[in-house]
Amino acid sequence: MSSARRSWTDGSLTVRSFLKPHRAAWAVFHPAWIPQALDPTVERLKRGRVVAGAIAAVGVYTFVEGGFAFEEMLENTAIASAVLFFLTPLTVGVMLLVWRRTGTVRQLRTPLLDSLKLLLLFVACVFATVGIFQSSEMVGLVPRMLLTLAGLWMAFFVMAGAVRLSGNFFGSAAVHRCLPPLLATVTTWLMAVPDLVTGDLHGLSLTMGVVFILGAPVTVSGIALLEMRRLKRRYGILLGAHPATLPPAPAGLPPQVPPPVPPQANPYGRPPYGQPYGSPYAPGPGRPFPQGNPYGGHRARNGQNPYGG
Fold first, then answer.
1. Torsion angles phi and psi, residue 223, rounded to 5
2. What's the average model confidence in pLDDT over 220-231?
3. Do 240 and 94 meet the contact criterion of CB atoms below 8 Å apart?
4. pLDDT per residue over 272-293, tens digit each?
């Protein structure tokens, strides 16, 4: 891990960013210390995992409930964030026990604390948003309008942050590259299993209920496995290996790219410029060029210089 720590936003968060909540969310919930994707394919797989999770969470919910209930969606988001607050550290703790065989936990202390701060920040924003909307119902007209505007800004801020965090999963990639797909898989399955166990199919038939409930975890798990497989085959990054034992890989540059070949000397000893075999009009050996004026060997027939010399 690098000892030189940059600022949280690295200058990307300005006053103008707060005019657009999604830009502020992208600056706050994707700090500068989170590593970039190793190559474009990993980045596309990560985006596909995010889109699949968002469609499964919002699209299926809207279809099952027969409409989009904004307040109920916020409450479900608060419940999900509370689950993440306990699930994420638990999953990371299990992986730390696995990694202790080849390394120490102290080596990962800094990225672990940074990831925990990001998790706490998101959970606090979610509960603050829910609290603002609930408080707006207890005050007069003018304060209600102000609180509603603030709540809408926070809602867009939280939703954009949730999309951003779905990719980096609270900056866990700074700990281990395989943690984001692992956490995404565990989270989607944990949210689907209770509905299957309790038989809560949201009023759908057994077949449709199983398809809608398992759609999210199956899709996200498939993309996550492809992501981890590429990390393993192309960069040698294994989920069970301690991050300190993994081979370093430059961000954005595949290791298979060959290094540039330095310029080599001419193997035949020829000069780099000009004719490789000398002048094509040069005389042979032992026959030097004639000396003197090549046009002064003849005179005009009348013995006079034709040019008046």
1. -70, -40
2. 90
3. no
4. 555 555 555 555 555 555 555 5
pTM of the model: 0.70
Helices (H), 104-242: 109-135, 141-168, 179-198, 206-235
Based on the structure, what is the number of domains in the chain? Answer: 1
Determine how many CB atoms are found less than 10 A away from the CB of residue 204. Answer: 14
For the stretch 94-99, contacts whose Cβ atoms lie closer than 8 Å and that sit 24 or more positions apart, written own/partner, are: 95/176, 95/179, 95/182, 95/239, 98/240, 99/240, 99/241, 99/242, 99/243
Find, among 112, 122, 49, the residue nearest to 81 by Cα: 122
Q: How far apart are CA 171 and CA 33, in angstroms?
A: 8
Q: Is residue 250 part of a domain?
A: no
* Domain carrying residue 231: 40-245
Question: Residue 251 falls within a domain, yes or no?
Answer: no
Which residues, in sequence order, are CB contacts of 106 under 8 Å at separation 6+? none
Q: Is residue 17 part of a domain?
A: no
Q: pLDDT digits over 59-109, tens only?
A: 555 555 555 566 667 777 777 788 888 889 999 999 999 999 888 889 899
293 part of a folded domain: no
DSSP string, 59-106: IHHHHHHTS--HHHHHHHHHHHHHHHHHHHHHHHHHHHHHHTTTS-SG
Q: Name the DSSP class of 294.
A: T
